[in-house]
Amino acid sequence: MNDIKDYMQQLGRRAKTAARVIANAESGVKNKALDVIASEIELQQAAILEANALDMQAGKEHGLDEALLDRLELNEERVQAMAEGLRQIVSLPDPVGEISHVNARPSGIKVGQMRVPLGVIGIIYESRPNVTVDAAALCLKSGNACILRGGSEAKHSNQVIATCISQGLKVAGLPTEVVQVVETTDRNAVGELIRMEESVDVIIPRGGKGLIERITKEARVPVIKHLHGVCHVYIDDKADIEMAKAIALNAKTQRYGTCNTMETLLVSDAISAEILPELEVLYQSKGVELRGCERTRRVLPNCVAAVDADWDEEYLAPILSIRVVDGVEGAMDHIHQHSSGHTESIVTSDHATAMRFMREVDSSSVMVNASTRFADGFEYGLGGEIGISTNKLHARGPVGLVGLTTQKYIVFGEGHIRQ
Amino acid sequence: MNDIKDYMQQLGRRAKTAARVIANAESGVKNKALDVIASEIELQQAAILEANALDMQAGKEHGLDEALLDRLELNEERVQAMAEGLRQIVSLPDPVGEISHVNARPSGIKVGQMRVPLGVIGIIYESRPNVTVDAAALCLKSGNACILRGGSEAKHSNQVIATCISQGLKVAGLPTEVVQVVETTDRNAVGELIRMEESVDVIIPRGGKGLIERITKEARVPVIKHLHGVCHVYIDDKADIEMAKAIALNAKTQRYGTCNTMETLLVSDAISAEILPELEVLYQSKGVELRGCERTRRVLPNCVAAVDADWDEEYLAPILSIRVVDGVEGAMDHIHQHSSGHTESIVTSDHATAMRFMREVDSSSVMVNASTRFADGFEYGLGGEIGISTNKLHARGPVGLVGLTTQKYIVFGEGHIRQ
C-alpha cells in the first residue's frame, strides 16, 4: 500500500512539473504531438491489435460480460477511428490564452480574463482503450497534464497506446510526463489518485455507476461527472403528433445503452388517448417493454404497471416508463423530482410553453422539439468530449476543450495604486 | 443532534422549493424586494443598533478580540452603507436568462447556452452582520435561494436584519424561504449544512483559516472559497524604480488585514542593491518589520533573517518577507512553490517579460504594474462580491452575480431526430 502511495505521489509530482510546460506550449507544438501520435497509432496497428487480443482472451477467461467485451475489443476500423479522432482534435481551435472582457475601470486599471488550463487532470475509466487516446489528446490540446488510470482488463492495449503517445510527445519536444498511464492495476491506485489535492486539479471518471459513486464519495479532488442519465421527453397537448412520435421513438430506440437515451416518457393528459396507442405500436415493433402509470394503463390496458422505482431507473435497455401528467406543470414537477439533471426535451408547438420549459427545467441540456440523443459533444460542435457533466459548478453538459480550462483575472496597470 | 439535523433538513427542503420560484422571478420583482429591504434597514436602524449593542456587550464579556469586535460593531454609517449596498445591487444587470453562443449545427438543431441560478447556496460566516445583507442580496438578485449561518456572536443583529429581509420578500410577493437565517447557534448546524447534497448546491464560507479548513475537509457539497492570500509583488530588473516603490508600498501598507495584501516582495538580483535601501526607508516610516533572505540581508544588514516558514505565511500584519531572486524565472519559481493562488503582480517596463508573467503565473488574479490591493469585486466592476475564490473550477477570483450562476445547454429543434 505504501508502495502504491509513493508511486502515485511520484506520478503526481511529475505531472505537476510537466503541467507548467504544457500550459505554455504553443498550439503548433501541441498539434505536432497529436499528429505524430495519430501516425504512430496507425504504424503500431498490428501491435495494438495483438495486445488487445491478449486483453480479450483474459477478459473471456475472467468471464467479462458481452457489453464489456464489446467495449474492450479493437479492430482495424476502431484503431483507424482513434487516429482520425486525434486529427479532428488537431483541427479544433486552441482555447488557451484567449483574453476576453477587458474593460477600463474608473481607477484606470484595465481588467480582463485569460483562459488557462486547469493543470493536472486525473482520468479514471473502464474497458474502452480508445478513451486512453481521446482523453490524452483532449488534455494535451487544452494544455493540461494528465494521469490516466484505465481498467485492468485493457492493460495490454493501453500499454501499447501509451507508447504511441510518448513517442508523439518526444518528437514534438514535450516532456513525456504530460501524459502518464498508471501502470499498476492495484485498486488502491484509484483511492490515492482521487485524494492527491496537492498535485491533481480535477478528476474525471468514466464508467459504471458503481465506479462513479465510489469516486464521488471518497474524492478530495473536485470531480467532473455525471452519475447516470434519467432523461425525459414530455409530449405537450400542443404537440405535433407526427413529430412527437418520431422524437419519442428516436430518443428511446436509436441506442439503448447511452446516457442521453430517454428513460421516461411524459405525456399530457389531454393528448394521451390519441397518441399513446400509436406509440405502443411503434415501441412494440422495436421490442420495447412499456411500464405505465395508472392513467397510461387506462389507455394501454396491456401495459405493465410501473412501480415507484421505475421513475428513477436508468434502464439502459429496451424498457420505457410512461407517465400521463397534467400539462407542462405536471411534467416539470415530475422532472424536478426524478430527473438526474442530464437532458430533458419538450415536444410542443406552443411558444410560451416551449420557452417556459426551456427556462424552468434545471438540467444540463434542455431541448425543444428534438431528440435527447443529441446531447453529445460532437452534436453540439465541441469537437471531442471527455464526458458529460451534471455538476452545476464549472463545466455542465458535454465537456470539451473549453471545459478543461479555467479563467484567471488579468489586470493591466501603469503604476496604479489603490487609494 | 437529531433535532439539529431535522431542523437543517427542513430548511434545506424549504430552500429547494423556494429556489424554483426565485429562479424564475422577473428582475423587476427581485429589485423590488431589494429596494424594500433597503428601506426596511433604514427604518429599523434603531432596532438594529440596539440588537448590535447586545451582541457587542456579550462579545466583550466573552473576551472577543479587538479585530472581531470591530467587525461585529455597527453604527449609523455602517447601517446606511448596508442600505446603499442593496441599492447598488438593484442597479446591476441581472445575469439570469442570458442566452449566448447559439449556433446551427450540421444536423439542423440550434445549440446555445442559457445562464441560470445555481439553486440553493449555503453561506457560513463570522461576526460581520453586514454579510447577512450583502450575501442575501447577491443570492436573491442572481435568482438563488440561500441559507445563511452567521456567527453566534452576531445573533441579535442578524435576527433584526433577517426580519427586514423577510419583509422585503413579502412585499415583493416572493416566498420568505428564499432567504433563511439559521436560528440555532449549535455548531452542528454547520456540519449538517455542508453535507446536505440533496438540497444545497454550493457552500461559500467567509471567515478565518480555521473555519475554512474545517469546512473544506468535511464538506460533501462543493465549496467556493479561498483559504488564505499569500500575495506577491515581483520587481523586475526592467522596472521603473519610482513605480516599483509606490506599488510595493501600497500593496503592503494600504491595509494590512486583507487577503489581497502583499505578504512577500520578490526583487530581481540585478536591481536589489539599488531599490532595497530606498524601500527599507519607506517601510520603516510605516513601521513595517522586514524579514529578508540571505541576499536581501547583504543589502539590508539590519533586516531580520527570514526562516523557511516566512515564505508561506499570511501575516495580515505590518510584516513583510523579502526575497532576492534571479529575474522573472526565479520569481515565478518562488510563486509556483509558495503562492496561495490568490494574486500576484509584476512591476516591469519590458513587454515580453510582462506578458510572460501574465501567461505563466497560475493565480486567480495576475497583474502588471498595479497594486495587488486591486483584487476585489468592486475594483473589477462586478458590483458586489460574495467572496474571492482560489478554486480552479467555476468562479475564480472575485465572485459576483455571474459567479453565483451556471449555464445549461439549450437546443432548439423542429422535430429533429438523431440519425
Structure, briefly:
The structure is a homodimer of 419-residue chains. The first copy, chain A, has helices at residues 2-23, 27-43, 45-61, 66-72, 76-91, 130-141, 155-171, 188-193, 209-218, 241-253, 269-285, 294-299, 327-338, 351-360, 377-380; strands at residues 99-104, 110-117, 120-125, 145-149, 179-181, 202-206, 231-235, 262-268, 289-292, 304-305, 319-325, 343-347, 365-370, 387-389, 397-399, 405-416.
Task: Provide the descriptors you would attach to this structure in a database record.
homodimer, 419 residues, alpha/beta, Aldehyde Dehydrogenase, Chain A, domain 2, seven-stranded parallel β-sheet, 15 helices, 16 strands
Biggest interface goes to: A-B, 67 and 67 residues
CATH C-level category of the largest domain in chain A: Alpha Beta
- CA gyration radius of chain A, whole angstroms: 24 Å
Q: What's the pLDDT, averaged over the residues of chain A? A: 96
What does this molecule look like?
The structure is a homodimer of 419-residue chains. Chain A is α/β, with parallel strands linked by helices. Chain A has 2 domains: 2-225 and 394-412, Aldehyde Dehydrogenase, Chain A, domain 1 (3-Layer(aba) Sandwich), CATH 3.40.605.10; 231-377, 3-Layer(aba) Sandwich (Aldehyde Dehydrogenase, Chain A, domain 2). Helices cover 44% and strands 21% of the residues of chain A. The first copy, chain A, has 15 helices and 16 strands. The first copy, chain A, has helices at residues 2-23, 27-43, 45-61, 66-72, 76-91, 130-141, 155-171, 188-193, 209-218, 241-253, 269-285, 294-299, 327-338, 351-360, 377-380, and strands spanning 99-104, 110-117, 120-125, 145-149, 179-181, 202-206, 231-235, 262-268, 289-292, 304-305, 319-325, 343-347, 365-370, 387-389, 397-399, 405-416. A 7-stranded parallel β-sheet of chain A has the order 10-9-11-8-7-12-13, sandwiched between helices. A 4-stranded parallel β-sheet of chain A has the order 5-4-3-6, with helices on both faces. In chain A, helix 14 links the parallel strand 12 (343-347) and strand 13. In chain A, helix 2 runs antiparallel to helix 5 and helix 3 packs antiparallel against helix 7 (155-171). The mean pLDDT of chain A is 96. At the A-B interface, strand 2, helix 10, helix 14, strand 13 and strand 16 of A face strand 2, helix 10, helix 14, strand 13 and strand 16 of B.
